[in-house]
Amino acid sequence: MVLDEFVEARGPWSAVVAAGDVLTIVDLEGNQAVDCLLYAAADTTVRYSAPVTIARQQSIVLTTGSVLRADTGAALMTVVADEVGVHDTIGGACSQESNTLRYGQHTREQHACVENFLIEGSRWGLGKRDLVSNINWFMNVPVDPDGALGIVDGLSAPGKRVALRAEVDTLVLVSNCPQINNPCNGFNPTPVRMIVTRPEAAL
User: Is the pTM here over 0.85, yes or no?
Assistant: First the structure.
């Protein structure tokens, strides 16, 4: 065991996961979306790219075997175990601005994932220009035949896990999503657990 920490409901988290180590994210109570950004720790201008990852794997969902790639095409992390089967790459991160647009002016002051990323990213010298399209672990975003997408109840359950092996030293930023205006968290944000282990004990 390298690290074992709980992320409070609505809270941010970050750590550098060394190459070869495995980060396991545990959905403690079920139906909790975990927004995530990845950066090469040695050079944070090398960062997760949703378009490159989607194009290389020819799928918009992530599961066991998915390689999370940087904008350079380099592998940052690989999903080595997954108890849910579907994780989102296209739903994006909620923000105070998007909350206002989607749900009304009364939501403007609600804390959101972009704010969590900015708070946690500042610890590593990252700012708003360093934010890119993110991963949403445990989040269910089906796409209709006409291209419309929706945010619906998650497919996870209490204790479900997804495990990621770092291919290089990787800075991981997380927003334990605070959204309460759509079903991504079952309208009730809950804590999650972040565990970093050596390869022999991922799950």
Answer: yes
